[in-house]
Write a structure and sequence with these properties.
The structure holds 3 protein chains of 3 kinds. Chain A is α/β, with parallel strands linked by helices. Chain A is built from 12 helices and 19 strands. By secondary structure, chain C is of the alpha/beta class. Classes of the chains: A alpha/beta, B alpha/beta, C alpha/beta.
Chain lengths: 460, 209, 337
Amino acid sequence: MSAASGNRRSAATPAQGRWLIRGARPLGGPPADILIDGAVITGMAASGRDGRQLAAGADVTVLDASDLIALPGLVDLHTHLREPGREDAETVASGTAAAALGGFTAVHAMANTEPAADTAGVVEQVWRLGRQAGYCDVCPVGAVTAGLHGSQLAELGAMADSAARVRVFSDDGQCVSDATLMRRALEYVKAFDGVIAQHAQEPRLTQGAQVNEGEMSARLGLAGWPAVAEEAIIARDCLLAAHVGSALHICHVSTAGSVEIIRWAKSKGWRVTAEVTPHHLLLTDELAANYDPVFKVNPPLRTAADVAALRAGLADGTIDCVATDHAPHPAESKETEWSEAAFGMTGLETALRVVHEAMVSTGLLDWSSVADRMSVRPAEIGRLSDRAAGQHDMRHGCPIAPGSPANLVLYDAEPIRHVDPAAHASRSRNSPFAGLKLPGQVIATFLRGKPTVLDGRLAS
Amino acid sequence: MAGITSSAGPAATAGAAAPDTRAGAARAGKSVLGPDEIRRALTRIGHEILERTDGAGDVVLLGIPTRGVPLARRLAERLAETEGVRVPVGSLDITLYRDDLRLRPARTLGHTEVPGSGIDGMVVVLVDDVLFSGRTVRAALDALGDIGRPRAVQLAVLVDRGHRELPIRPDYVGKNLPTAKREVVRVLLTETDGEDSVTLAQLPEEEGR
Amino acid sequence: MNRHLISAADLSLDDAVAILDTAEELARLAERPIPKLPTLRGRTVVNLFYEDSTRTRISFEAAAKRLSADVINFSAKGSSVAKGESLKDTALTLQAMGADAVVIRHGASGAPHRLARWVRGSVVNAGDGTHEHPTQALLDAFTMRRRLGRLEGLRVSIVGDILHSRVARSNVWLLRTLGAQVTLVAPPTLLPIAVDGWPCSVSYDLSSVLPGSDVVMMLRVQHERMSDAYFPSVREYRRRYGLDGDRMALLPDHAIVMHPGPMNRGMEIAAEVADSPRSTIVEQVTNGVSVRMAVLYLLLSGSRAPDESAVAGDTELVTAAELTATGAGSQVRVEVL
């Protein structure tokens, strides 16, 4: 199925709110027809005569999805939309457009904006910008500490009660390193079923750190970021969460040791969840050899052994989900000496393709598990699986079945193409996958029955 | 990122055989001078130097690497045998003064050794195996100018093959050899190549000096 | 392939020997009445120094001028750089000025790599952060060869703050290439974690290493390292790792003492050692000019090799198969062009 035959996939004038997606393969299974009416999936049947009956006689737009894999709309627990404050790198509009092109229907926007998202006012602003743009649901993440300074709790309750209904709190970018403060935060959010998402980085062990501490840092003469600085914080926080009976989420796990600690904590029945980024599933620190800062990220790219352990951890569920940590930066922040360059990589538009390459092509996950790791689990952790807002069903990560909100992504697993950041919707071009051949392409994304992406392009 | 690669160029160390892809082709060429003829030519040049410099009392022989160097030494031996004159001998590498450096990758340097007596006020006799365009000698004159101020500079060559591109003429010639530009004159010496011979051969189309 | 000199690790044995042999010939130049050669006439060499280093800059300047190149000095202080001009913009300016070579000293490891993407001329690394200082290693090797007659099998001990030393790194790679045996001596805090993978031995005990050393190279240790707990006090460092007269007496008779400069007299090296006949510190400076002349000659005198590698905007096409292995648990192999 080539992209060239795309014109049969979309009609010129979509009928009001009714779509028949024909021949898609939900979770990679046998072909089915899916009927969407308004914001909801109202019918589903195996392709063939039954499918025709689904929409018999009705005024409906048909979308030919033969051989496309249907997944529930992806949910990203970790994205940087940069607005307010760094609109030169990204805005809520451009970032959510990128998300939609990547197959996402909900993203959690991290709080390290300028000003930081540490009050109800800022989180509501971000939430509203998301609704205005309309590309996907934006769930703002609230800061744990005021200004992300790590010394005083932010008004977590106010943010939880705001229109944005914040449930995930993180100082991401910074580590909540003070043990007492972390303990208090874990305890405090129990009141509203919140979760603290920790960016695990012991600051004293990583002062001025630039790359993974190991062979590469020694050779390149760059300050090292040792694995133990991540692992020590994770171990401490798992124990704290257990002690106070709260929920802990670990952002962007990057080392084999971290995976082991999380596995151990889960074996004790503690409420610890974890995410891994696509780039940590594919890339290693050897890429720093030419000092190109497009490969500079926090936590840093690690070794092949770490990549293998992260893949195994995602496969066996120790790591619950994939989260992009999409971190856009303007060109001048990346076209400079390594030590001066900003940390971070874009990732929304490449995430599914990278997971495809690293986990599906290698046989570690099937598409059903991809749906679990990229939609169901992140929605559960973000407390999006069972929420409703007024008359709108704001749930994500629901099964593709009648009654579920129509949040879907249709994905063509066949093509293999080079990644071209110049063609990305994100305002920023700092993708480490530039020039890399990756499989797959998102063909269509539906947000509560409304297509945000059709034919591989943003729907107007 | 890579650094520097060492380049093609004449072997700098004396005594080492210089493998040369053209030697193989040229060995197939016709012989112009054999060992005896070379010996006689050098003997004659030695006599001529003695005559024209009034006994070679203030002569310095400087060979131009590679093969000019053993030739200069042999001349010095001749002068010592015939007249008992001890003439200082040295070498003058001209690589750094070439006018064609930018046409090829960086060249390996040859060895320069100016005898302790220096060249100021002396008669410097430059010694080379083949005189062709004259550019090597032009470079040698520039090099000499930075080393000192000779009273006079003369030129001794084993073979003059014509095709001068500069107003340079030899003072002492072993053999005048009219050649076509596309022909190759190959000089082999015992000290560098294990045998004494001068041959003339045709070059394949692509190669050139 | 032969456009830049950024890392000593990139030099093959032939490359390194070619530089040393060329430097040997050029060293005689200084003895001439007119110590100047026309070889690089018409070429422009830019000294781009972001870090204060009069000594190294003058050395490169002398080297370039003796080859009749034009030299432009661009130092960070009081220039557009100090006003915040980015490395990229500075590079594009130099490019526009027609620099054939840029000699760069910079506080950030990897700055020459970045520069090489933006200029078409040759980039010579005069010291980048804590990464490398290849011409220093070359002049060190040149000095060793001159003093001791060989490099193969030579036993070289490098002592000091290895972790933060670009001189140490360049010397380890170059000396290994040239066939010498290197031992690094430092307190454990001043050695990189992955030093076990380096082609050298490691010792924490200076005195035990000295009787078996042909060359002792002392590195500068900054007092400031003390405030970051790398060692407890100057006194303790000097006692355990300083080269004083007593320790010098442990060396074999022929052994030499080297230092890249500037020295902290009384810290890593005692005055009596620095001023002894074993010390090569002054001749290292002279040799530096000859070696840098050789480097500039070999990089600039010949024809320009066709531009294979990047000028800005190049993307390197790699397949994911080249980046990854299949299956959990297997080694992930990474290849970047």
